[in-house]
Amino acid sequence: MKRSTSEKIGQALITLILLVLCLSVLYPFMYMLAISLNVGSDAAKGGVYLWPRKFTLSNFQIVLGNSVIQHSYLITILRTIVGTFSGLLVTLLAAFALSYRQMPARKTLLTLILITMLFSGGLIPFYIQLYNLSLINTFWVYILPSAFSAWNMFVMLKFIHGIPEALIESAEMDGAKPPRVLFSIIIPLSKPMLAALGLFTGVMHWNDWFAGAFFVSDQDLIPVQTFLQQLLSAQDISVVMGSNNNVEALARGSNLSEVTLMSVKMATVMVSAIPILCVYPFLQKYFVKGVMIGSVKG
Predict the structure, then answer these.
(1) Which of 31, 145, 187, 231 is 20 to 30 A distant from 131 in Cα terms?
(2) Residue 129: which residues within 8 A CB-CB, separation 6 or more?
(3) Total tally of structural domains belonging to the chain
(4) Mean pLDDT (whole number) for 107-117
């Protein structure tokens, strides 16, 4: 079908706007990457915008060779894996149970869950609750409080309601119990939605710095994003270097005179952002499909 001149102009304008938006999103990332790959003392002079003027890997050697960051990475990876799987499990089980309309007190439970989406007790009562549960300054403070999401549960519930009831009824007529229905019908048909919710949950766990900053005082338990937040507010590079022994060990593999606090900050941002960005291509197909299904059924 031949398009009119106005349609071509409109299409070109939309394409131009999208290109500008893409560049506005990519430029800060490219700028930080250029600074992280540039000699810190040279980058401090200015003029480094899209590519490094004096290429070096010293900044990444400092970051990746730091034992604190390595341990923070381990905490973040463990938190993301355990938190994502536990969140999906709790969300799926809750949505599946509440999908049975004959479930006792179903409407009351849905109302109580909805209230938690609209109202919050506040930070101080939440902290007191975590303290009474002995979760403060433990790894599980990252997992248990976020294991259930009311929003994700309602999205999953809506998706399950969209599955033809004939499939579930036929399975039940053949003697299938709820666990069999869950594993044989609900989960296989819910893979796109589970992938989308899993991506949301995983990104939340990976990017969260708040819990580590306010609920954890043990430096051995802080995630990498909390360490990055501490680094961004630091006034000198001692936060990264640590002890004198650590400085000497790092000096063997890099030129510390080329490193500045800003260059190390940019390298830390790259190290903390790139892994989660690499996950998107593998889940993009399921993510897009799950979001589209959720929007149509909503």
Answers:
(1) 231
(2) 121
(3) 1
(4) 89
